[in-house]
Design a protein that fits this description.
Aminopeptidase, eight-stranded mixed β-sheet, elongated
Length: about 525
């Protein structure tokens, strides 16, 4: 199937912030953090802003508590609280960037200086040397810990600032658009020569995270399978990533019964896409293979979902969005890592041609599957692309990302992705990477006993096994399509990919989870 240049029914805006390194022009508003009960005299301040801040601290109008902001913008100063220094965690300041960003867009002046003080680097010291020892009764201390460098923290802050600057109100008739971009200059004397590189990494992750969140947030009539393909063609051309598209006729000939079955009910046919970034100086002999579920809208099919919150099923393609933007990120940064992506794109609709409960299809690897619930469709499309990846893409490691089960949200809430893998060494590596990237993951059991309920009377497998342990039984289903010799991990991102209200250190709507994790993983692969 040849790709053709097509026009998208939307235009992705650029992030509201432009991040720069260097000396800011006169009159720029200074933005800086302050710990709870920190003496104002320790801050690199002078003039009227400092005097007013001292008055506020003395009267306890501002104490430096987490999420507290002292707005002295009229005096050229904005101070935000980080909470108690002894309870500091990198999440504290990175998360604050998300919440501060939209506030900066409200002021008349559009130039800021973000200054990281010596106090921040001192607080990070325990994370640099791995010797953080919280008090036993300190409930405010985050126990999600891993060593983190100064540059990594700064990169996280920059990407979080970019993420927080965008409301994703892309289709409003009256958009709030500024005449010029808000410019933020970053100061961190402590880093000196490493500052520019750290900021550049953060900008790369932040800007591609912006694009990823944008398409994830688009409604299904704007970002359907055809638009997904067109967007991917444009993204890959821009960043120099190769792309091959398999249309419905290709999939039928290849025997990709899962993708074909799920997409049958829609007037827009499904497709599979393979992306590859293979630099000449790649340090890995076998590629990192990333697989993604791309259901652009999920009604549940014949097993129709309840009407409440169904509109959020536009986010059911977040796994595939992570994959295509991760390859663009690696190419943009020119990382010496060979990466291949494979995504299945479909729309799960209850049309007259839709699959029915009780139907049986044959997956790419020849396994027959009885469909007992058409709303368990993500695992059907993943079955094809996982078995195809094992047969043809020669993965050194295989990751799949999918908003797969509501059970994962029940088990882990909205704070982390669930990870399942039979490979203990890979699990440890994923855990270390997630802690350093602040894209949290948590390993769930993977034992084969969980798969006993997947036996079918008429086929090799059925696609559901009841409510109990639904996230893990879904993993056991997928394991039937991955060769045992392949190091593989399944990421269920149903809880972390989006949130209707925003929470903690995450934005409202699409969270952007995944790019920071993979960026960190790619960098580790280079070593």
């Amino acid at each position: 199937m040849k790709t053709q240049k097509k026009t998208l029914p939307f235009e992705i805006t650029e992030p509201a912030f432009e991040i720069k390194v260097g000396k800011a022009p006169a009159g720029a508003i200074l933005v800086m953090p302050m710990f709870k009960d920190q003496a104002v005299k320790t801050l690199p301040l002078s003039g009227e802003g400092k005097s007013l801040l001292e008055e506020f601290v003395k009267s306890k109008t501002f104490q430096g508590k987490s999420s507290e902001i002292c707005d002295l913008s009229a005096r050229g100063l904005i101070v935000f609280g980080l909470g108690a220094k002894e309870a500091f965690h990198p999440d504290t300041i990175a998360g604050q960037m998300i919440h501060i960003a939209p506030k900066l867009l409200k002021y008349e002046k559009s130039t800021y200086v973000l200054r990281f003080t010596e106090e921040v680097w001192q607080a990070l010291k325990g994370f640099r040397d791995g010797k953080v020892e919280p008090a036993e009764d300190d409930e405010s201390f985050s126990d999600y810990f891993a060593p983190m460098t100064d540059e990594e923290l700064l990169s996280q802050c920059v990407s979080s600032l970019l993420a927080g600057s965008d409301s994703m109100e892309m289709l409003k008739s009256k958009k709030k658009s500024a005449e010029k971009k808000t410019v933020v200059y970053v100061e961190a004397e402590y880093l000196k020569k490493k500052l520019a590189d750290a900021v550049a990494r953060g900008v790369a992750v932040g800007e591609l995270s912006h694009s990823m969140r944008y398409v994830e947030s688009l409604p299904g009539n704007f970002f359907h399978p055809e638009a997904f393909q067109t967007y991917t063609e444009q993204l890959t051309r821009k960043h120099g990533v190769s792309l091959k598209v398999f249309g419905i006729s290709d999939l039928e000939k290849m025997g990709c019964g899962g993708i074909v079955s799920v997409g049958k009910g829609s007037r827009i046919p499904p497709r599979m896409m393979i992306l590859e970034y293979k630099p000449k100086n790649a340090k890995n002999k076998k590629p990192i293979v990333l697989a993604g579920k791309g259901i652009t809208f999920d009604t549940g099919g014949i097993s129709l979902k309840p009407a409440g919150e169904m509109h959020e099923m536009k986010y059911d393609m977040c796994g595939s969005a992570i994959v295509i933007h991760a390859l663009a990120l690696a190419a943009r940064r020119k990382l010496p890592v060979h990466i291949t992506g494979i995504v299945a794109i479909a729309e799960n609709m209850p049309g007259g041609n839709a699959i029915k409960p009780g139907d049986v299809f044959t997956a790419y690897n020849g396994v027959t599957v009885e469909i007992q619930n058409t709303d368990a469709e993500g695992r059907l499309v993943l079955a094809d692309i996982l078995s195809y990846a094992c047969a043809h893409l020669k993965p050194g490691v295989l990751f799949d990302f999918a908003t797969l089960t509501g059970a994962c949200v029940v088990a882990l809430g909205h704070e982390t992705a669930g990870v399942m893998t039979p490979d203990d060494e890979l699990a440890d590596r994923i855990d270390r990477t997630s802690r350093r990237s602040l894209d949290r993951t948590w390993r769930l059991p993977h034992w084969r006993q969980y798969g006993q309920g997947l036996k079918s009377e008429v086929a090799d497998l059925r696609n559901v096994s009841g409510r109990d342990g639904g996230t893990i039984t879904a993993f056991r289903f997928l394991s039937k399509f991955v060769q045992r010799s392949v190091p593989w991990a399944h990421f269920d991102i149903a809880g972390i990919a989006w949130h209707s209200k925003g929470y903690g250190t995450r934005t409202k709507g699409a969270s952007g989870w995944g790019l920071s994790f993979l960026n960190r993983y790619f960098e580790d692969e280079m070593r």
